[in-house]
Design brief:
202 residues, globular
């Protein structure tokens, strides 16, 4: 009799529910990947780029930026025989027509944009190159995520409300240099050092 009662109790017991560590099929649940959060530099740098780029398109051009726009207009009219940006005389051995200005002139001819629009576009592109170059280089130098943020303060103060600085060839040159330094640092880290075992050898 006790044996029958034990068997009846076992047969009428409720089925076991899946544990918290398994799913309905009895397989273990995969651990959730950690939530990705953007770095402070990505957030603040992106915000700075958006604000300064909008200012570049809305700020009236004058001085150096106006001269750059005039150079682009001359190159859009004629790449091989442009006139001086401030006169209608032929430009002979003019220092204004650099390879960077030629690139802007080609952009104007390809897109149909006017000189001021090309200068504003160059400002946005140069700022993007500069910000990404700072981020890449600082990642090679330190794992601290706040180090590149410090560079945003003088960058915002120096370049604020001055599209001529953003679209200037010097800004483009500095941005490209930062990317080259970052690439060099990455290549140096990956390069084998003397005494390291060669791949494929125990």
């Amino acid at each position: 009799m006790p044996l029958f009662s034990a068997a009846s109790a076992a047969s009428t017991a409720a089925p076991d529910l899946p544990s918290a560590a398994t799913d309905g099929d009895g397989r273990g649940k995969a651990a959730r990947p950690p939530l990705w959060l953007p770095s402070p530099y990505l957030v603040l740098g992106g915000l700075l780029w958006a604000v300064l780029s909008a200012a570049a398109w809305r700020t009236p051009l004058c001085c150096e930026a106006g001269l750059q726009a005039a150079i682009v207009e001359r190159l859009r009219a004629s790449l091989l025989h442009p006139a001086f940006p401030m006169t209608d005389l032929p430009a002979v051995a003019s220092a204004h027509y650099s390879p960077y200005a030629l690139l802007q002139g080609l952009t104007a001819r390809a897109t149909g944009l006017a000189g001021p629009s090309v200068v504003a576009l160059a400002a946005s592109v140069n700022l993007l190159l500069l910000l990404t170059g700072i981020g890449r280089l600082t990642r090679q130098l330190t794992p601290n995520r706040w180090v590149p943020v410090v560079a945003l303060v003088p960058l915002a103060l120096i370049h604020w409300a001055d599209p001529a600085r953003w679209s200037a060839p010097s800004t483009f040159a500095v941005a490209v240099t930062l990317h080259l330094w970052a690439w060099t640092g990455c290549a140096a880290v990956r390069a084998p050092r003397p005494g390291d075992p060669k791949p494929g050898r125990a």
